[in-house]
Write a structure and sequence with these properties.
The complex is a heterodimer of chains A (158) and B (759). Chain A is α+β, with helices and mostly antiparallel strands. Chain A contains five helices and five strands. Chain A folds into two domains: 76 residues, Beta-grasp domain (Ubiquitin-like (UB roll), Roll), CATH 3.10.20.30; 67 residues, [2Fe-2S]-binding domain (DNA polymerase, domain 1). Chain B contains 20 helices and 30 strands. The chains are: A alpha+beta (158), B alpha+beta (759). The interface between A and B is large, with 62 and 65 residues.
Chain lengths: 158, 759
C-alpha cells in the first residue's frame, strides 16, 4: 500500500509559528492533536455536529474535524490553549469556573473558543443571541443554563 | 449496622460554592481525557462492525489487511475467550461473562448492527481504517426483531438460540424473553373493587442514547510478563478491571486500570467495549500500546443505550381521591443480550405514591439492538412517563385537582414501595409542598409569542432509590496543614469538590486546602462506579471517615506535645485544645508543622460498603408553547424541584438538576433510535439524533429541598439521577394541557402532535 505524499504546511498556532508535514487526508483536528500535540481540542463526532473540536481560524469559528490540516497553510489558529496569557486566564475561563459552567468538561474547550468568537465581535449579546451562537456546540451535562450565564457575566462586565 | 446522624445547620464548608479543584485544567485544555494519552510506539485500533442487525458470520478473511504495510495486528471474535454463564458483580448491576464476551466481539453470530467482528492495530487511524476496509466478512443475513412487540410475536426470529428464559420461575426455551418477574402486595382485586374511578393506558417508548460528547476510548498494553495496563474513560476503574480480567481469563491483580478524565457517562461508561480489544491487539503486536476511539456512529449503534419498550398502567381511586390499587406490565428492550433496566423500573414505578394494593410485572426482552446499559436512573424515566401520565388522566377523568391528588397520596416514611421495601425518612411530600410554593407554580403561563400558538403547563414527579456500595479514600497531611485526598471515584461532574468539601468540613480547613486526586486501581482501595448517584454520598462518607481518623490521630499527636492524656484533647473550629488547660491550644495548621516531633507522617484511610442509600424524589414543572399548524413545541419555562438531602456544593447540585431536566426534555420531544426494516438505526449521527441545543431550552430554574438523609453524616442523598425521571411525563402532561391531546408514545415530536390533532 502506497500512502500519498505528505503536504508541507506553515501555520501559526496560538501565536507560535509552526511547520508540519501533514498527510493529505488528515483532519485539522488530528493535525492539532496528533502533530502539534495540543490535546485541549476535543473529538466528539467527527462530522461537524457537536462543536467539541471548535477552533478559531483567522477570526472564524470552525469545527476542526471538517477542515484538513493541509488547508491551513498561511492561516492563524487559536485553540483553547491559546486563551490564557502570561497575565492570567481569559475572562471567559474565569467565568466558567466561577459559574460552575462545566461538569464533565469535554465540551468546555469548544464552548470557550466559540464564546470568545462571539464576544470578540459582539461584546454585549442578548441571552437569545448567545443561545443562537452557541447552538453549534453540544453539551450533555449542564442543560446550558450555567454556560449561558457565564458568557452573560463576561458580556456584562466588558 | 447502619449508623444514623442528627442533622446540623452550622457548616463552614458544606453548602458553599468553591471553584472545583479540577476546573483550571478543564478550562485551559490541560486535563487529560481518555483520548489524549500518547505513549511511545502507540498503535491505533480500528474496529470492523456488522452492517446487519442479525446475521451468522460465515467467514472472515483478514489476509489482505495483515499484508498491509503499517498493520501490526489483526484480531477476530475467535481471539476472545469463550465463557459459560458466570455472573460478575459490577457494583451497580452485574454482567454475565458469557454475553459480555460475545458483546465485545461476535464470533459466530452478530445480534445488532454495529456489532464488532474484527479489529486491526496500525500505525495511525487512517492506515487502520484502510486495513479495516480490506477485511472481508461473509454473512448469512437473518430476519430481525428490533422491538418488544416483534420479538414476542409468534414466529419471531430467535436471537440467542441457547437463551433459557425465566418466566416467573419456569424455564422457557426458544424465546427472546430473558426474564419475567412479579411483585405483588395487598389485595389487587379487592383494591380495584373499592375504586370509583379506573384509568388504564398503554405507553410505548423508543430506545434513546445517553449522548455523552466524548466517545468511548481505551489504550492498553499487554506485556510479555502478562501484565495488562489500561488507560480509559470510565465511570469505574475497578469494574473495568473486573470485566476485562473476566473476559480475558486473567487474574484481576495482573491488570492496572488508570481512569483518565471522562467526558460524560450517565451510566453508559460502566460497561467496557474497547478495552479487551486493545489489550489483545497489544499482545499480538508484541506489547505495543494500542489506542482505540469509537467513532460517533458506532457509539450510537454499538454502545449501551437506554431501553425502549411497552408499558401499561392501570390505576384505581375512590371518589374521595384515594389511590387504592395499581398494576403495571412493563416490557423493556434488553438489546442483543439479556439485562434491561426493567428490574429498577419495577422498584420505581409506584414509588411516589402510597398505594395499598399493587402488582408489578416486568419483562426483559432480547431484541436486535445494542445491549442496553444504564442511563441515569435506569428504567425510572420510562416508568415515570407511564405512571405520571396515567395519574394526570385519572385526575382529569375523575375531576380531581392534579396537585391535591398527588399531595393526598404522596409516599412517606413507612410507605411500602411496589417491590416491598419500606421507605425510611423521605421527602416526597416536602417536594410537592416546595413545588406549590415555587415562583413558577405561582406565575401565569403568559401569552403565546404569536397568534394561533397555544401555551400550557404540566408537571410530574419521579423517584430514584440511589445506591451506596464500596468506596475508599486516603488522606495524607502536608506540613503546611493542607491535605492530599486520594480517591477511586472518577469525577464526571464535580465530585472531587464535593468529596473534598466533606473532608474539609471535618478537618476545619477550606475546600481549597484539600487537594483531591483520582488514581488507578493499584493506588487506592476498591471503589465502585461513579453511578447510582453514589459518589458524593458514599465516597464522601469514606472521606468523612478518613478525616475523622485524621482528627483522632492528631489529637494523639497533640497529647504527646502537651504530655497530657489523649482523651483530654478536643478539636473544634480547626483548633486542638486541652479540655482542662485553656493555655494549651494549637491550630490544625500549626500542628501539621510539628508532626516530625510526634511520630512522623499522618496518613489515614476511610473505606465503606454502604448497603442503604436513601432514595430521593423530584417534581418538575414545564410550560410549553405549541404551534398547532406545525406541531413545533418550545419549552418556555421549566423548574426542577428536588429533595437532595443536603447540597454539599449547591452549584453542582443545580447543575445536576438542570442537566437531567435537559436530557429528559430531549427524550420527551426529539430523541429516538429510528429503526428501518433492516434493523438499522437510520439517525446515527448528532445531526439526525437531535439532542437539545442551547437554543432549544430556556433557563432551567431549580428549587433545592433539603430533607436530611439520616444515614449520612451530612444528610446527603444522591442527586444525579432523579432529575431525568419527571421530565418526559411533565412534557406529556404539558402537551395535553396545551392542545388537549394525550400522547402515549415517545418521542412526542411535531409529527406526532400534528397527527394527534388531526385525529
Amino acid at each position: 500500500m502506497d500512502l500519498p505524499e505528505r503536504v508541507h504546511v506553515r501555520t501559526t498556532i496560538n501565536g507560535q509559528a509552526q511547520e508540519f508535514l501533514v498527510p493529505p487526508y488528515m483532519s485539522l483536528l488530528d493535525t492539532i492533536r496528533e502533530i502539534a500535540g495540543l490535546t485541549g481540542t476535543k473529538e466528539g463526532c467527527l462530522d461537524g455536529n457537536c462543536g467539541a473540536c471548535t477552533v478559531d481560524i483567522d477570526g472564524r469559528i470552525v469545527d476542526s474535524c471538517l477542515v484538513l490540516g493541509a488547508e491551513v497553510d498561511g492561516q492563524s489558529i487559536t485553540t483553547v490553549e491559546g486563551l490564557a496569557t502570561k497575565d492570567g486566564l481569559h475572562p471567559l475561563q474565569q467565568a466558567f469556573l466561577e459559574e460552575a459552567a462545566l461538569q464533565c468538561g469535554i465540551c468546555t474547550p469548544g464552548f470557550l473558543v466559540a464564546s470568545k468568537g462571539l464576544l470578540d465581535n459582539e461584546p454585549n449579546p442578548t441571552e437569545g443571541r448567545i443561545r443562537h451562537w452557541l447552538a453549534g456546540n453540544l453539551c450533555r451535562c449542564t442543560g446550558y443554563d450555567k454556560i449561558v450565564r457565564a458568557v452573560q457575566k463576561v458580556a456584562a462586565s466588558s | 449496622m447502619v449508623s444514623t446522624f442528627e442533622p446540623k445547620s452550622d457548616y463552614k464548608v458544606i453548602g458553599t460554592r468553591p471553584i472545583r479543584h479540577d476546573g483550571l485544567d478543564k478550562v485551559t485544555g490541560r486535563a487529560v481525557y481518555g483520548a489524549d494519552i500518547k505513549l511511545p510506539g502507540m498503535l491505533w485500533a480500528v474496529v470492523v462492525r456488522s452492517p446487519h442487525a442479525h446475521a451468522r458470520v460465515k467467514s472472515i478473511d483478514t489476509s489482505a489487511a495483515e499484508a498491509m504495510d503499517g498493520v501490526h495486528a489483526v484480531m477476530t471474535g475467535a481471539d476472545i475467550p469463550k465463557h459459560a454463564d458466570e455472573l460478575i458483580d459490577l457494583g451497580e448491576g452485574a454482567a454475565n461473562l458469557r454475553w459480555a464476551a460475545d458483546n465485545i466481539m461476535a464470533d459466530e453470530k452478530v445480534v445488532y448492527r454495529g456489532h464488532a467482528v474484527a479489529s486491526v492495530a496500525a500505525v495511525d487511524r487512517y492506515v487502520g481504517e484502510m486495513a479495516a476496509d480490506a477485511i472481508k466478512v461473509e454473512y448469512e443475513v437473518l430476519p430481525n426483531a428490533t422491538n418488544v412487540r416483534d420479538a414476542l410475536a409468534p414466529g419471531a426470529p430467535i436471537i440467542l438460540e441457547d437463551l433459557v428464559g425465566d418466566d416467573l420461575g419456569d424455564e422457557v426455551r426458544n424465546t427472546n424473553m430473558a426474564s419475567h418477574f412479579r411483585h405483588e402486595f395487598g389485595d389487587l382485586e379487592g383494591g380495584f373493587a373499592q375504586a370509583d374511578h379506573v384509568m388504564e393506558r398503554e405507553y410505548s417508548m423508543q430506545m434513546v442514547h445517553q449522548g455523552y460528547i466524548e466517545p468511548h476510548n481505551a489504550t492498553a498494553i499487554w506485556d510479555q510478563e502478562d501484565r495488562i495496563k489500561i488507560w480509559t474513560s470510565t465511570q469505574g476503574a475497578f469494574p473495568v478491571r473486573t470485566q476485562t480480567a473476566g473476559i480475558l481469563n486473567m487474574p484481576e491483580s495482573r491488570l492496572k486500570v488508570t481512569p483518565l478524565e471522562i467526558g460524560g457517562g450517565f451510566g453508559g461508561k460502566i460497561p467496557i467495549y474497547l478495552e479487551p480489544i486493545c489489550a489483545i491487539l497489544s499482545k499480538k503486536s508484541g506489547g505495543r500500546p494500542v489506542k482505540g476511539i469509537m467513532e460517533r456512529k458506532a457509539v450510537f449503534e454499538a454502545s449501551g443505550p437506554a431501553p425502549g419498550g411497552v408499558l401499561t398502567v392501570k390505576l384505581g381511586a375512590t371518589k374521595d381521591g384515594k389511590l387504592v390499587a395499581a398494576e403495571t406490565d412493563m416490557k423493556l428492550e434488553a438489546g442483543g443480550y439479556p439485562g434491561s433496566a426493567v428490574g429498577a423500573a419495577a422498584m420505581c414505578v409506584f414509588s411516589c405514591y402510597d398505594i395499598p394494593n399493587t402488582r408489578i410485572d416486568g419483562w426483559d426482552i432480547v431484541v436486535n439492538k445494542p445491549k442496553s446499559a444504564a442511563y441515569r436512573a435506569p428504567g425510572s424515566p420510562q416508568a415515570a412517563y407511564a405512571m405520571e401520565s396515567a395519574v394526570d388522566e385519572l385526575c382529569e377523568q375523575a375531576g380531581f385537582d392534579k396537585m391535591q391528588f398527588r399531595v393526598d397520596n404522596a409516599s412517606h416514611e413507612g410507605t411500602r414501595r411496589g417491590d416491598g421495601v419500606i421507605f425510611p425518612r423521605i421527602g416526597m411530600q416536602e417536594v410537592l409542598e416546595a413545588t406549590k410554593s415555587s415562583p413558577h407554580w405561582n406565575a401565569d403561563i403568559g401569552a403565546p409569542s404569536k397568534p394561533g400558538n397555544k401555551r400550557g403547563r404540566g408537571f410530574a414527579s419521579g423517584y430514584w432509590f440511589n445506591v451506596g456500595l464500596k468506596s475508599s479514600v486516603n488522606l495524607s497531611l502536608n506540613n503546611d496543614g493542607t491535605v492530599e485526598l486520594v480517591e477511586g471515584s472518577t469525577d464526571i461532574g464535580g465530585t472531587r469538590a464535593s468529596i473534598s468539601m466533606q473532608a474539609a468540613e471535618v478537618l476545619g480547613i477550606t475546600a481549597e486546602e484539600v487537594r483531591p486526586t483520582v488514581v488507578d486501581t493499584d493506588t487506592i482501595g476498591y471503589t465502585d462506579v461513579t453511578g447510582g448517584s453514589r459518589t458524593t454520598y458514599a465516597t464522601g462518607y469514606a472521606a468523612w471517615k478518613a478525616a475523622n481518623s485524621m482528627v483522632d490521630e492528631l489529637k494523639k499527636r497533640a497529647s504527646l506535645l502537651w504530655d497530657i492524656d489523649e482523651d483530654g484533647v478536643q478539636f473544634e473550629d480547626g483548633v486542638f485544645s486541652s479540655s482542662t488547660d485553656s493555655e494549651l491550644k494549637i491550630s490544625f495548621k500549626d500542628l501539621a508543622g510539628k508532626l516530625n516531633d510526634t511520630g512522623g507522617p499522618v496518613n489515614t484511610t476511610g473505606a465503606v460498603d454502604l448497603e442503604a442509600a436513601g432514595g430521593a424524589f423530584g417534581t418538575h414543572i414545564c410550560d410549553l408553547e405549541i404551534d398547532p399548524e406545525t406541531g413545533k413545541t418550545d419549552v418556555v419555562r421549566y423548574t426542577a424541584v428536588q429533595d437532595v438531602g443536603k447540597a454539599i456544593h449547591p452549584s453542582y447540585v443545580e447543575g445536576q438538576l438542570q442537566g437531567g431536566a435537559a436530557q429528559g426534555v430531549g427524550w420527551a420531544l426529539n430523541e429516538e433510535y429510528f429503526m428501518n426494516d433492516d434493523g438499522a438505526m437510520t439517525n446515527s449521527s448528532y445531526l439526525d439524533y437531535r439532542m437539545p441545543t442551547s437554543l432549544d431550552l430556556p433557563e432551567i430554574e431549580t428549587v433545592i429541598v433539603e430533607v436530611p438523609n439520616p444515614i449520612h453524616p451530612f444528610g446527603v442523598r444522591g442527586v444525579g439521577e432523579v432529575p431525568i425521571c419527571p421530565p418526559i411525563a411533565a412534557v406529556a402532561n404539558a402537551i395535553s394541557n396545551t392542545i388537549g391531546v394525550r400522547l402515549t408514545d415517545t418521542p412526542m415530536n411535531a409529527g406526532k402532535i400534528i397527527a394527534a390533532l388531526e385525529d
